[in-house]
Amino acid sequence: MADLSQIVKAYDVRGVVPDQWDERLAEYFGAAFAQVTGAGAMVVGHDMRPSSPGLSRAFGRGAAARGVDVTEIGLCSTDELYFASGQLSLPGAMFTASHNPAQYNGIKMCRAGATPVGQDTGLAEIRTLVEGWLDGGPGPEAAGTPGEITQRDVLGDYAAHLRGLVDLSAIRPLKVVVDAGNGMGGHTVPTVFEGLPLELVPMYFELDGTFPNHEANPLDPKNIIDLQARVRAEGADIGLAFDGDADRCFVVDENGDPVAPSAITALVAARELAKHPGGTVIHNLITSWSVPEVVKEHGGEPVRTRVGHSFIKGEMARTGAIFGGEHSAHYYFRDFWNADTGMLAAMHVLAALGEQSGPLSELVAQYDRYAASGEINSTVIDQADRMAAVKAAYEGREGTSLDELDGLTVTTADWWFNLRPSNTEPLLRLNVEARDAATVERVRDEVLGIVRA
């Protein structure tokens, strides 16, 4: 029997195929999703991994057997699936393992309007149902009349929706290198960019779920080396890198230098606040100090949250926020059903760049104000013990404040750091920011000295 505790995560299903899960299990997940949502219809999409078409079809069969009409949109990015869920007002399931290696696959599920399904919002119930069926109990009960399975292409509608949110038709011509990492950006970018004043230089647009060129994870510096070199060689204005399911986008400037996701968050926040004066902007606690500063400077209200899309989307719904950003290059928009879409963030950056004459490096300098360490992982046996040791070292220091909204955050007038345990691995994750690089190095080394003692 499959061990669902290994594959049902906090926000999705994810594991190795066929070792940890297979099409039979996908069919059960489809039946359970149908029962938990109580929906009469749903939409299902998948990425380019070799196992994705079979798994997504099996999921659809499981739902249809329960009387649910299933719309298969086929190959799509995760944000394209969210678009379909929002536009059609249907629950949705996306088959992808994002940036994980080729042997992995997973399911990201949402209710109608792209509202996320996580442990507290239906995923635990889905797991319980599937475990019951696997444990020798009666299987999913078939409906008297099975649902209908139909196919629909929504790529054109998705592109039109995005282009209606950010008008790029009048910007100056830009040369744009895009590294799709053999992922779904190779499917969506040509349609979204078609006819715009953009000279597209494609890299690794061939859909290939074995990722022959590099991992489709642009947050790892080694995976954007090719993009950086190509931007310089082409004399391009900007480089964009998408992850495997194309819901995250990473930006490099005309020099090939990475642009921090916090700077992108601040830039997009300023643009969204121009459209929605006085709006609320969500940022997680690892984004730069510059984000709430820029939001306030543009008349907005910054709200700090825990890391993770369920917390961001929950706070956006609660506050009516117009935009949210994370240090991991996830960007969320009220105009996109509070869902994350790297493509829409990229279009905002292209618009901001194309509406003025200067290079991207100059444009983003106003949003990138501090020195940062990036995320540093330490393997530790006892996370709680090391967290407690770090807390004890800083607690009570003059001019220092501590909070435990998500892990431990220690803040002074000149620097801050956050130390968080991984939910899935024996790791502690450290992020440091300060007013200068020397202070970042000093604080980083001090904290790591305790963590790795």
From TrEMBL:
Pfam families hit by this protein: PGM_PMM_I, PGM_PMM_II, PGM_PMM_III, PGM_PMM_IV
InterPro entries assigned to the protein according to its UniProt record, in alphabetical order: A-D-PHexomutase_a/b/a-I, A-D-PHexomutase_a/b/a-I/II/III, A-D-PHexomutase_a/b/a-II, A-D-PHexomutase_a/b/a-III, A-D-PHexomutase_C, A-D-PHexomutase_C_sf, Alpha-D-phosphohexomutase_SF
Keyword vocabulary terms for this entry: Isomerase, Magnesium, Metal-binding, Phosphoprotein
Named cofactor requirement(s): Mg(2+)
Lineage: superkingdom: Bacteria
Gene3D superfamilies: Alpha-D-Glucose-1,6-Bisphosphate, subunit A, domain 3, Alpha-D-phosphohexomutase, C-terminal domain
Ranges where the Alpha-D-phosphohexomutase alpha/beta/alpha domain occurs: 6-130, 157-256, 266-370
Residue intervals of the Alpha-D-phosphohexomutase C-terminal domain: 375-448
Transmembrane segments: none
The family this protein is said to belong to: Belongs to the phosphohexose mutase family.
UniProt name for this protein: Phosphomannomutase
Gene source species: Streptomyces varsoviensis
Taxonomic classification: Bacteria, Bacillati, Actinomycetota, Actinomycetes, Kitasatosporales
Gene giving rise to this polypeptide: manB
